[in-house]
Write a structure and sequence with these properties.
- Helix 3 (64-76) packs across helix 9 (239-251) and helix 3 (64-76) packs antiparallel against helix 10 (254-262).
- The longest helix is centred in the first third of the chain and has 13 residues, at 64-76.
- The chain is built from 10 helices and 10 strands.
- The radius of gyration is 22 Å and the shape is elongated.
- The strands form 4 sheets. A 3-stranded parallel sheet has the order 2-1-3, with helices on one face.
- Helix 6 links the parallel strand 6 and strand 7 (175-177).
- The N and C termini lie far apart (83 Å).
- The model is unreliable at 1-16 (pLDDT under 50).
- The chain folds into 2 domains: 39-125 and 226-262, Periplasmic binding protein-like II (D-Maltodextrin-Binding Protein, domain 2, 3-Layer(aba) Sandwich), CATH 3.40.190.10; 129-219, 3-Layer(aba) Sandwich (D-Maltodextrin-Binding Protein, domain 2), CATH 3.40.190.
- It has 274 residues and is of the alpha/beta class.
Length: 274
Amino acid sequence: MTRPFLRLAPALALGLTLLGPAQAEERTPMDPRLVTPGQLTVATGDPVFPPWMLNNDPAGGEGFENGLVYALAAEMGFAPEDVVWVGTTFEQAIAPGPKDYDFNIQQISVTEPRRAFITFSQVYFQPDKAVVALPGSPVEDATSFAELRDARWGVTIGTTDADYLVNILGIDDAAVFDDQVGVFQAMQARQIDATVVALPTALFVTAVQVPEAQIVALLPPDENDFGHGLAFELGNPLVAWVDEALGALIDRGVVAELTATWLVADPDLPVITE
């Protein structure tokens, strides 16, 4: 009678590793480390806005970020119908603690302070910052940081836009609002003169939400803002798998194509650098 360990000897001699059922399913759609094996659970804002996602419909697949998610899901072996969307606020996305999703995508900038509470993928997009104002604003013809500081600013609380005003422009008395809708309502009421947002957001705002507003200028990057990344619960073991798939999309030019489709800006916009 052949003993069990003798039957295993050829495999061990070849350096093969015997995996349990759970390990064998890792990096497949049935990965037991997923919040719900069999589906990719993705969180995003509620509501969502173009050009990141169109028609307030993440599942529609039209837009930069949901287009990226469906490309990423396919790279990981998921069918489109296996992507399940859940809504969160931005504050919930960057808060510490357990998450009921696999990752969150809603223009979340990778910063060192946030890395203490959540784990990030590699960066998938680095946006320029843009100054948005109504005609007649004191920043309309600004050419320097000093001239920008003379205006009344408003910004969404808890964002890297708020950090930018303080760290780069030296403005620490900006009015803060719970969301971008509040910022632009205050601008239309002439309670503030200007705001700073990521360029793709500025393009949508000035084209659709507040068409009377305009992009006054582009601004230099903040070295403490590394760009947008997917946000995971701290220490989530899925990060390496997702990062590998995201890296493949970047290498094949998929992310560059999505950028060219959804996030194109006027190359002649003025730039204020100091």
